[in-house]
Amino acid sequence: MFSKTCEYGLRAVIFIAQQAKTNEKVGINTISEAIDSPQAFTAKILQQLTKNKIIESIKGPYGGFFIDEKRLNKIALSNIVQVLDGDSIYTGCGLGLHQCNDKKPCPLHFKFIEIRENLKKMLENTTLLELSSDKALADYYLKN
């Protein structure tokens, strides 16, 4: 459903958000290892997220990526998806067909509309604060 870029981006931002509770800045090596993503690919994704002000970064020996804890409740997953994948997840065909629309629907077209609407609501209503506080998610990253 999401592109690989978006999947890794979501994982990275959630991981960085978890570090915000302790005001930790996280290096690219740590992030790519924690989210099981190639380092160069992760770096490109993080650069895009930094450019779009989802996350922040500081260079140097005490630098790294971070999110101000006060912003965690203001950043929804939809913000990250928009930066990395645009709105195609809300408008694209469930089967990936280019000519699917209301006038020429694919077999899943009308059923998929409801799924897209629910997904959009979930992404818009789920903040980084909520996910960074999720104990199961924190345990997942600590185990891997």
Number of strands: 2
Helical proportion, percent range: 55-70%
CATH level-3 fold name: Arc Repressor Mutant, subunit A
CATH class: Mainly Alpha
Number of domains: 1
Describe this structure in words.
- InterPro entries: Tscrpt_reg_Rrf2, WH-like_DNA-bd_sf, WH_DNA-bd_sf.
- This is Rrf2 family transcriptional regulator.
- The chain has 144 residues and is mainly alpha-helical.
- It has one domain: Arc Repressor Mutant, subunit A (Orthogonal Bundle), CATH 1.10.10.
- The protein is 57% helix and 4% strand.
- The protein is built from eight helices and two strands; from the N terminus they run H-H-H-E-E-H-H-H-H-H.
- It has helices at residues 4-20, 28-35, 39-51, 77-85, 88-91, 109-125, 128-132, 135-143, and strands spanning 56-58, 64-66.
- A two-stranded antiparallel sheet has the order 1-2.
- Helix 1 packs across helix 2, helix 1 packs across helix 3 (39-51) and helix 1 packs antiparallel against helix 4 (77-85).
- The longest helix is centred in the N-terminal third of the chain and has 17 residues, at 4-20.
Give a brief description.
With 144 residues, the chain is mainly α.
Write the layout of secondary structure elements.
Elements: H1 4-20, H2 28-35, H3 39-51, E1 56-58, E2 64-66, H4 77-85, H5 88-91, H6 109-125, H7 128-132, H8 135-143
Antiparallel strand pairs: 1-2
Helix pairs in contact: 1-2, 1-3, 1-4, 4-6
